Automatic annotation (TrEMBL):
Name the record gives this protein: Ribulose-phosphate 3-epimerase
UniProt-recorded Gene Ontology molecular function terms: D-ribulose-phosphate 3-epimerase activity; metal ion binding
NCBIfam families per the UniProt record, alphabetical: PRK05581.1-4 (NF004076), rpe (TIGR01163)
Catalytic activity of the protein: D-ribulose 5-phosphate = D-xylulose 5-phosphate
Underlying gene: rpe
Metabolic or biological pathway, per its Swiss-Prot or TrEMBL entry: Carbohydrate degradation
Enzyme Commission number, as recorded: 5.1.3.1
Amino acid sequence: DRSLKIAPSILSADFANFGAECEAIEAQGADWVHVDVMDGRFVPNITFGPATCAAIRPHIRGVMDVHLMITPVDPFISAFADAGADVITAHVEAGPHIHRTLQAIRGAGAKAGVALNPGTPAEAVSSLLDMVDLVCVMTVNPGFGGQKFIHSQVDKVRQLRAMIGDRPVHIEIDGGVDPATAPLVAQAGADVLVAGSAVFRGGSVSDPAPYGANIKAI
Ligand code: DX5
Ligand code: ZN
């Protein structure tokens, strides 16, 4: 399904209230819930791991989209699959054996995603397109929410859409998505838009209506 889907990133949610935040954003129109896992090694920030994913799972009705910004990946795949991740995305830069990693993700029963940092060309995933369900184009350098969208990535999205052809592979955009940048990537062929700060700004679990307005504005 190539219709446009909004995947709010709980990186910008209240970390003390993940369950309620997930329920609130789904009630306000989120299509997927994007979960950013960071290890302080692959990226210069630490968030949380599989236990937190398992804890929030019952609070998400739809797709739990887990973005692993960790290295190594392979020792943790089964833990994230057991936590109930629907999609597990690993970075092509996270190790020398991304092909093995993607095989293991599907082997664990999840959909497989591959992410590319802004400095990595589209060609880095050309040999992987038959074994993924999603390609994530980072439009910021991963590690933090609220960064500025890197415009040079729009052309990469266009290239990937052409490379993917008629394969059933989503193109997800992650970083700096807001009402100004969303149309650029949607037009270039992306169908899943991750947005953290642009969704959560102005709202809270006790006043979630701004989440809905922000999602509609994207
Ligand atoms: C960045 C994360 C993103 C981030 C997006 O490392 O992977 O998912 O939360 O946040 P915004 O939308 O604020 O750029
Ligand atoms: Zn992410």
